[in-house]
Automatic annotation (TrEMBL), chains A, B:
It is a multi-pass membrane protein. This is CASP-like protein. Its main location: membrane. Belongs to the Casparian strip membrane proteins (CASP) family. The chain crosses the membrane at residues 30-48, 74-97, 109-137, 165-186. Signal peptide: none annotated. It holds the Pfam family CASP_dom. InterPro entries: CASP/CASPL, CASP_dom, CASPL.
Length: 192, 192
């Protein structure tokens, strides 16, 4: 016991705890921002590559009928929103890395990133909701208004759409975590 | 000019700027939270009262066909999300008022409210997106998949839906502003 307590002051003096903890948050921030970038690119790539053409009966004659994301304004909004989010993720990853090297401006950047994160969360969450609503309609249809389901015909298109929405949901959760992390880091710097 | 500069120190000494500014932020916080509550209640009330029954031709015979929000899973999600957001708005308005009276716990509460605000923003933005996507489909239809537009028949239903989505969008923006305000208030308490 005596030898353990005698070494403690040496350990404490060699490593300052507060800057180390702050550095760890910065690294998690960079990882989360890169995850947001990755999730956004995956979501966009999955939906852009979802085109599928099937033979559909039109007045008794089978005609090739393509399904493309461009045919739905909701999916165009989804692709636009996640393109913005992907670019934002990439840009802020670089900013976040550069802030690690210059910790003097850290808290100011953290505030601005938090403000932008909140905006991006609004955009990606609404885009995920929009695409999710349309995808559910494609899967189940709505008999009350006569909107038929289409996923029994366009299976590949719907699989891509489902994968894209799952990745988008992950991206939205990452964005919430980013806001939480920034807020917590700001709070740790407030004097008690 | 000389008389103006001579009065300035007197004004500065009579009013302490930092606590006054903090108090103002708290008041804006209460107002914004009450606005979130109001917007959520309006959005839910507008959509719940949107039921409309019209005569629709079914195999050549006009039959009464009702339009209700319950028929669409997207609108059920919308109502659920904004019910949660309304309750959250009411609860946090009370919390925010009580924090004004006990400024000692202000920053701790502010952090927790910011974390919850980010979650609520994700929920309300996705719900607004979902309902917006379905409403746009009802307004314009989608000829590629044979989903007909319905707003030419159910005009009252669609008017209520549009009003509800506009209010929901306002509520989402208020939620973004709440996050911005909390983050900014936290940042002002960080020593420079």
């Amino acid at each position: 016991m005596a030898s353990t307590t005698s070494t403690e002051p040496v350990i404490k003096s060699s490593s300052a705890p507060i800057p180390l903890a702050a550095l760890d948050y910065s690294k998690i921030d960079v990882i989360l921002r890169f995850l947001l970038f990755g999730a956004s690119v995956s979501a966009v790539a999955s939906i852009v590559s979802s085109d599928q053409t099937e033979l559909v009966l039109f007045q008794g004659v089978p005609v090739p009928n393509p399904a493309k994301f461009k045919y739905s304004p909701a999916l165009i909004y989804f692709v636009s929103a996640f393109s913005v989010s992907g670019l934002y993720g990439l840009f802020t990853t670089i900013v976040s890395i550069s802030v690690i090297q210059k910790p003097r401006y850290k808290l100011k950047f953290l505030l601005h990133l938090l403000l932008c994160d909140a905006l991006i969360l609004g955009i990606v969450a609404s885009a995920t909701g929009t695409a999710g609503g349309i995808a559910y309609l494609g899967l189940k249809g709505n008999s009350h208004v006569g909107w038929i389901k289409v996923c029994n015909v366009y299976d590949k298109f719907c699989r891509h759409l489902a994968g894209s929405i799952a990745t988008a949901l992950f991206g939205s959760i990452v964005d919430v975590l980013l806001i939480w992390l920034s807020a917590y880091t700001l709070h740790t710097h407030v004097p008690k």
